[in-house]
Structures
1.
Amino acid sequence: MKLSVIIVNYNVRHFLEQALLSVRKASRQLPTEVWVVDNNSVDDSVAMVREKFPEVHLIANTENTGFAVANNQAIARSTGEYVLLLNPDTVVEEDTFERCVQFMDAHPDAGGLGVRMIDGSGKFLPESKRGFPSPWAAFCKTFGLSRLFPRSRAFNHYHLGYLDEYSTHEVEVLAGAFMLLRRSALDKTGYLDEAFFMYGEDIDLSYRILQAGYKNYYFPETTILHYKGESTKKGSLNYVRVFYQAMIIFARKHFQGRRAALFVLMLQAAIWFRAAVTLVVGAGKRLYLPLLDAALIYGGLFVLKNFWAVYYHKDPTYYDETFMTVNAPLYTALWLLGVYFSGGYEEQGNLRRLVHGLFLGTVFIAAVYGFLDMTYRSSRALLVLGAAWALTGTIVLRAALHFFRYRNFNVGRQASRNLVIVGREEESRRVLRLLQQAQAPVHCIGTVSPDSTADASAFLGPVERLQDIVVIYRIEEIIFCATDIASQDIMRWMTLLGPELEYKIVPEESLSIIGSSSKDTPGELYTIDVRFNIAQGLHRRNKRLLDLLVTAFLLVTLPLHLLLVRHRGGLLRNLAAVAVGQKSWVGYAVAQLAHNTLPPLRPGVLSPLDALPLRPADAATQQRLNLLYAKNYRIELDLEILLKGYRRLGS
């Protein structure tokens, strides 16, 4: 066997399918075996591989063993002269394997090889070629000097920014997304170090390859697409911690004395620095709109207080100072909470949820108002005026923010992007059906033929004129049909047209259209897969709130329930378990324990079965009920189950 391709997968089924299709095409001219190691995914990845890729050697782990361990499992069982470690969120060109193996055959000193990589927007990924993370290189990367001076030998050694992107070079570090290794080199260096769970193992192995007397090469004569950020999400505290901890493992392993101590100290400082930046940026993204709303509403209440005191009461000092220190902050907080629990900050352009949240807040304020001490009952008129201002001000604020971003006032209506499909008629019609089923917010201008000749009545033009078509029709998104256009042509067009457009690819016979416009954000999928309401943050939050409210009600009226509910001891245990978050009052039926394809929930005291007069015994029926519960979840559904299964709350 000439080549063994190894892919470690964890919950990226759609991207894995696309990667395997591209690997299948690239393997036609070379004796190749393909291994997929699945680290206990819950998205049906294993079933998809077994059904669609019977030629693949599949290892299905029952736990997430980490990147290094999983790769080593397949390396030990593979037989290829060369071993390629490939990420599942990649697409290779049709001749990638052939070109790379030819280079390795012609350079017996090469222990490893990496290629030119682009992200989902067509931009070159600088990590295609890297240097070792010396203390100075790591410092420059951590504190942004490498980004300020991208072509500097002194400041950007980490990404070797001074080396030409389109020339072959000797490099120090290979990228783990595409790491072609000579088997004889692996026999000398050993496999991946399993002390690294997810990051750093590529740096460590690259270092050991050089120590064994081989060279590592950057080879730009073929390009791969890497949806960086799919198999491991960036921008989280966990990413910062895991990445820099991996660098500390590398430093302690390969550096000695003061150099190692300095490097570890610097990396530990980097962890705190990057964690602080991540927290600040994350908090800013989450809190900027609530803070703007709070300032707007509070400021409006201040103006309204002064206006009403002068206009109606003819006395500028009519209202006590406590209005601005007690009433105004309380009203503002309750309005914001209403918007929050209505999902108005998760879907910031959804005016219906905004109005619903402000209405709930107003109702709650009116209820609280009657319980306030007379000192704090300022004015019902101010309450009504404040509610009107909160509604008007927050809507105007969202309209302004929307205009600055999109240059229109279509708040709450996702603008349709002008789109073209590159593919033959039959596949293009299939893609259109997928877009319609997924209710994608796009406006399909037409189809571009992958052939040099095109029927003017059926196509906008041939693919050679794609650049002109983009300009003439103001195209914002392009979908490439992988059945009809080669991967290398797709990547060439992505690079040529640039990152201003969005690109997606529909794999052969797939029900998904895949793309990612940024290396640091999740990719976008147009897919006809079932969408689960229970997976949305709004519903999960409201479900937990309902659990707590029901628990509080049961505790306040506990003597009554101890008389009516079966298994009184069980009720007390369930009250404690739900209160601390170990259980939910309603969860999946027991059959879900054997199937991990639905969004996870806490174990339930009751389940959808408790709303039925008869309890079906077969697991298939129970699983269908679980599916319907997850898909159609509303808080009213939990209330119905609680009412019908009330006497079993102690079970």
Note: The chain has a mean pLDDT of 86.
2.
Amino acid sequence: MKLWKQILGIVLSAVVVFSFTSCSSNGKMGKLQPTPAALSVPKQTKREQKQGDIFVSPNGDDAHNGTKENPVRTPQKAIELAQSLEKEDKVIYFASGEYNISAITFTQKDNGLTLFGEEGTVFNGGVTLNTADFTDYKDNIKMLDLKKYNITKEDIGEVRAFGQYNTAEKYGADGSLYCELFCDNQRMTLSRYPNTDEKNLRTGKITDNGDAKEIYTNKGTQQNPEWENLKNPRGGTFAAEKEVTSRMASWKNSDDIWIFGYFQYDWADSTTPLKSFDDSSITTEYASVYGFKEDAPYYFFNIFEELDAENEWYIDKEDLILYFIPPSDFESKPIQLSLETADLITFDNVSDITIDGITILGTRANAFFGTGSHISIKNCTIKNVGKNAVELEGEKITVENNIITATGKAGVVLTGGDRKTLTSAENTVINNLIYDWSQVYKTYQAAVALHGVGGVCSHNEIYNSPHEAVTYTGNNHIIEYNIIHDVVLKSSDAAAIYAGRSWSAYGNVIRYNCIYNLGSGEFTPCGIYFDDGLSGQTAYGNLLVNIPWCGFLIGGGRDISVTNNVIVNAGKPIVYDDRAIAGIVDNGWFTHSKTAESTLWKTLREVDVHAQPWVDAFPQLSRLSSDFDNTDNPAFAPNPADSIVEQNIIVGQKKYLGDIQKRVYQYSRVSDNPLYTFSENIFAGDGDYTLTVDTNNFEKLPYEKMGRVYQY
């Protein structure tokens, strides 16, 4: 029995159905190929209670001493008791149940502390609502008096700007999100029009671009010289259909209606309050970073009159009434409001702290945030948070075997190490299930982001996101053995694994990942993307299936190694352009290498590439040339030189490698990439991508090692 046939195939999400049309080598995928089966994940047993633990129970009493027979009631009291212990290894054990908490900060007084939770242990920074308290309002709308829960207008908060490219910091309105509603651990929708992204409105003719970062003229795009110091950037005006503006006339809370849109690029989401409208046009209160373009998608939200679809909600902040259109069987499902505005658990320069087996939810900020070393977050469920699940800086941080879902921003963001000396942080993100993240901020919010030096992202399963899955900056990161699927669903100029714009970010390795089923509808992203001159990257042993644009997109960088990958059904299997040098000698569109003060040249000066640690690790960097009078020199930094693209097996409708620019062939080695068509049947079976053909020097991919390796 072949490899993939042996796999149990626990798949936690439905496969996205795509509608890509068949075509040849013009950059579109062919017919969707079989989905690789997901790996089965064996279970392990959890830790049990031990004598010497401080015991906590929802039925305890903080007047108790924290023994098994006399548990305390709150995490805060247990932490206080642990601080009074003289032993180094201090353990707090939580009985199953929900603990309503406000923000907790761990300091050096808590070093050596471990928090264990029984199955069902929940830290909730919000409030769980009783479905019996909902009454009928009208039609299928339910209502709940929040005053019963002592919730105030201040608890609810104001609607604030979100989106990766909002301009709130320029008008003093950046801050925590408004509270959010969750039903059955799904993020509910603040009442909006239209109801779904598939029916989003489209901007008409742009009559005023507002005070944007970019200025668009007949001569092209220019940077706004006033942008850096600009305050209160004036919004823009665009045409709207009469049907839309007539509907808007019925909305009564016009002073608190907001607009979300991809106003210029599908990788730049933004929000702004509505300022005004008339019969034929709409004006926003503030600008989008990149201004506006015609036919850009957008929608309105926070509108009581548009409460008309299942899972939509709205809060009347004056009367403190929650209005909600719940699913039909909502009485049996947990319903929660996130209330805490601070990070739920903060580490303040700590060492040797472990959080194990606890569900964390209910904050409008981050679940975990802070600094320290030897921090371990494992076997937890982190969900229903407004920002990131984990954002930590330090060394030897481990995020292991967690379930992370329903975050407003990213999954895990780890920073550490020393680029000056290339000292590794040894931070690790391993064996996690991460899905349905980036639900509020729609772009550049990765499931895993590694920054600094020496991070590892290994054996995770990652799926269902509008944008990227894994990203990184810095050096010597390893991204390996992950299964990544159904991501970058709402963007094209993006990828499942993405990094870019650095000539000094050498030493990163992407290996043995399974990436499949990207994009949706009109959105056509890449598999692995080395953007805007990124150099010094290595990728081998990856399986990429059903990639609508480029399997690999290499954006003009040098010292790139792409070998021994299997690429099945990609629009363009491998694209390697010369944008960095073309921007100089051909007056091309790429501006980030044109002068010695351009972005890419600055990235070389971020570190001393002539210092001994760098010479030892990456001697080629010390030999780079900055001589603009000798641009033909292979060592001239912008040239796509010293790269290797070979022994990649490519299968498609036709034998087609992709688009490789002439300068790449001139300065690098592109050869021996076997090309096959679907009709040649080189794989063992549907969903089994084991090769049945003899390919010289091709390393068999370790499919059986990809994905998570255990779970609790």
Note: The CA atoms of residues 22 and 399 lie 41 Å apart.
